[in-house]
Prior knowledge:
Blueprint: H1 3-12, E1 33-35, E2 45-48, H2 61-66, E3 71-74, E4 85-88, H3 92-104, E5 112-117, H4 122-135, E6 140-143, E7 148-150, E8 153-155, H5 164-176, E9 181-185, H6 188-192, E10 203-206, H7 220-233, E11 239-243, H8 249-255, E12 258-262, E13 271-272, E14 276-278, E15 281-288, E16 291-297, H9 302-317, H10 322-331, E17 340-341, E18 350-354, H11 359-369, E19 377-381, H12 391-402, E20 405-408, H13 418-426, E21 441-443, H14 447-457, E22 463-467, E23 474-477, E24 480-483, H15 486-500
Parallel strand pairs: 1-2, 2-3, 3-4, 5-9, 5-10, 6-9, 10-11, 11-12, 18-22, 19-20, 19-22, 20-21
Antiparallel strand pairs: 7-8, 13-15, 14-15, 15-16, 17-18, 23-24
Helix pairs in contact: 3-5, 4-9, 4-10, 11-12, 12-13, 14-15
Amino acid sequence: MTWTDLLSALRTHGLLRLRAEDDALSLSEPLTGVSYDSRRVQPGHVFVALKGQHVDGAAFAQQAIDRGAIGIVSTSPRPADSRVAWASVNDTRLALAHIAAEFAGHPSREMRVIGVTGTNGKTTTAHLIAAIFEASGAPCGLLGTVGNRVGQEVREATHTTPEAPDVQALLRDMVDRGCGACAMEVSSHALSLQRVAGMTFAAGVFTNLTRDHLDFHEDMEAYFQAKRRLFEMLPRDAPSLINLDDPRGATLVEMAGRPVTYAINRPADITTGPLSFSLDGLRFDIRTPRGTLHVRSSLVGRPNVYNILAAVATATALGLSFDEIESGITALDGVPGRFQVVSGPKDDVTVVVDYAHTDDALRNLLETARPLAEGRLITVFGCGGDRDRTKRPLMGAVAGRLSDLIVITSDNPRSEDPARIIEEVQRGITADTRRDTAQRILTVVDRRDAIAKAIDTARAGDLVLLAGKGHEKYQVIGSQVLPFDDVAVAREALAIKRSNSGVV
């Protein structure tokens, strides 16, 4: 790809704002890559200066040039003293996405990419879809919160949906390694910030929409509009898999070119038979226009029924066989940090780690756990700092209503005072005349101590939920990112509890 090719692509998408100013040496010289971080620029790169809320990346253009960039794409005009090729565009994020797709050779056109969006359930649904494709004999990549799987290699994920050049590079690696499909979580941030613009999706999945990310989106309507963009991107013949039990589902059905609906409580294309719940998993039938499937899954709880329905709707709409679908669902043992049981047969209490970090997700988690608990339901959770503060009392209210004992602690406090976050959570817990509210609420700022306290306090038959961080292997306190793993900490506390009770 040359600078001339790049300009042609920008013109095709109507992104050039001013006449491009070119350095003659750059016109035919091959570009070696695209960067949006001036610190990662290498010789021959084009640097796309993203314009953020507070900083214009054009301020770092000279740093990029010093590192070898031979072209700059920016919303700003070319400085008088600059001697590199320069393109001024209307939207640097949209330009970055299209340039990245061109550099990678549009890998999404060479495989079936299934985009999964919604507030809750994206990770598990994407894992289920990937498992079904794998069972069909088609290697399937995976992009999402827990990690990015390319062939048999799992790479760490820093965002649910990475920036456009990183997405495109991962998809290209998947194609080159023989993947015929990719199940991809698509966040509202990614859709708002154009990270998936220029991609071709074979299908789009809508799980649900509940309160979250209102520190980023103006309100719930803006949040929904961001999610809606995925379905506006789909080719008219690509299926839109839509949860009709969610109030926003009907709106998506109206605008989708090929809607396929799923639900538990409403008539839909994909529905369930009688449901059976236990800690051992799910057993139920799924009715589809093609016939009935028999689901056997080690996943637990009603939310996972929706995730399985979404995956089945996707697979049937894309023509996979019932045998492949049933085998794929059965093959998925679980997803890290998603109702992950970390206690063992020698423990007299059950301990579950889950990523639930919104009031709706916490409610679903507690309602799933309640019938599975022989004794009390003990909930350990906190709320992230520098994020949507409005959900803190809402999460407190849910925990207060549905838990027997609550341990409020830190999540990722970031730059905020964790004690203040805990106070805001407590405001949602109203006095309960049936029970002594004060006696069933503990506040322990240190998360490790909170987990240890909850497990030590638990009696035989109790179920302890550790909510909020799930698969994460770190905790952000101030400017530090410290190693922390709920699963490992819980297992340490369980080992101490067994030792103290004389169980080896």
